[in-house]
Amino acid sequence: MQTTLKSPVTFTGVGLHSGRPVRMTLRPAAAEFGIWFRRTDVSGGAALIPAHWDSVVPSQLCTRITNAQGVEVSTIEHVMAAVAGCGVQNLMIDIDGAEVPILDGSAAPFVAGILARGLRQLDAPIRALQVLDTIEVRNGDAFARLSPAPSLEMAFHISFPDAAIGTQDKVLNLANGTFVHELCDSRTFCRKADVDAMRAQGLALGGTLDNAVVVDGAQVLSPGGLRHADEAVRHKMLDAMGDLALAGVPLLARYTGYRAGHAMTNALLRTLFARPGACRMVICDAPMVARLPGAGLSRQDAPRAH
């Protein structure tokens, strides 16, 4: 059965790039509603923005969506990953600004809030998108690929010159709460030189050593160091989870990312939906539901505070 929250949950913080304070509330919604953002600082129908792959507009550093009136919300990938990873299909997300709060730089606070409220089942079956053919997009030596699989699987490769990151690979089957247990607490990461360059351009104004992993060569500058030795590749998988959630339903596929990012994952979804016969919508039976990312989660699975 489809799910939504039992009651609203609110998050307050600042936008990573704008540095502006923002308040965001996840609210229960009816079956078949999907996931929508609503800008509470905008009046009328222009306030509504669908969390959907074809609402994404080009953005170098995050995932940004817009509606026909040009109203935007950016940096949605972490909350979308949390929603998908907890198995929530229907929500209204109220936000009083143009950027989702960065909080600690991971999806863990969103996951904790969702699991603390609990989920309510709705009288409608869960649909999933079954990938039937291999789809790939490339940019130089980077690529993103979707291929057939019985549940959502993910493989990711990254390589950075900084010794604190280096080359990392990870493969996960994201069924049965794996996202919550393995990925949700991994923070966004960046190189100190890139932070300095972004701030010179008026970006990353809300970034601190407490909401991102900042590295400088072999040194991790953030207090407490890394949460995982491979936190960087785990965060890239977290981002991909959020970007894939914009398909609108869970995916039954294997996602492979090789030095991929937000724009490439969105291009992959666009290619998938543009190719006839590459996928089909299916009604999930009980065994399929049991393999979805949020299956079997409870409040006891909430990530611990760092």
Describe this structure in words.
It contains seven helices and 20 strands. The longest helix has 14 residues, at 231-244. The relative contact order is 0.21. Strands 11, 12, 13, 14, 15, 19 and 20 form a seven-stranded mixed beta sheet that branches. A five-stranded mixed beta sheet has the order 2-3-9-4-5, covered by helices on one side. It folds into two domains: 3-125, lpxc deacetylase, domain 1 (Ribosomal Protein S5, domain 2, 2-Layer Sandwich); 127-299, lpxc deacetylase, domain 2 (lpxc deacetylase, domain 1, 2-Layer Sandwich). The radius of gyration is 18 Å and the shape is globular. α1 (77-85) crosses α2 (108-117), α1 packs across α5 (231-244) and α5 (231-244) runs parallel beside α6 (262-274). Helix content is 22%, strand content 31%. It has 306 residues and is α+β, with helices and mostly antiparallel strands.
Question: What topology does this entry show?
Answer:
Layout: E1 3-5, E2 9-14, E3 21-28, E4 35-39, E5 48-50, E6 56-57, E7 64-66, E8 72-74, H1 77-85, E9 91-95, H2 108-117, E10 119-121, E11 127-131, E12 135-139, E13 142-148, E14 153-159, E15 167-173, H3 178-183, E16 189-191, H4 192-200, E17 213-216, E18 219-220, H5 231-244, E19 251-258, H6 262-274, E20 279-283, H7 286-290
Parallel strand pairs: 4-9, 11-19, 14-19, 16-17
Antiparallel strand pairs: 1-10, 2-3, 3-9, 4-5, 6-7, 7-8, 11-20, 12-13, 13-19, 14-15, 17-18
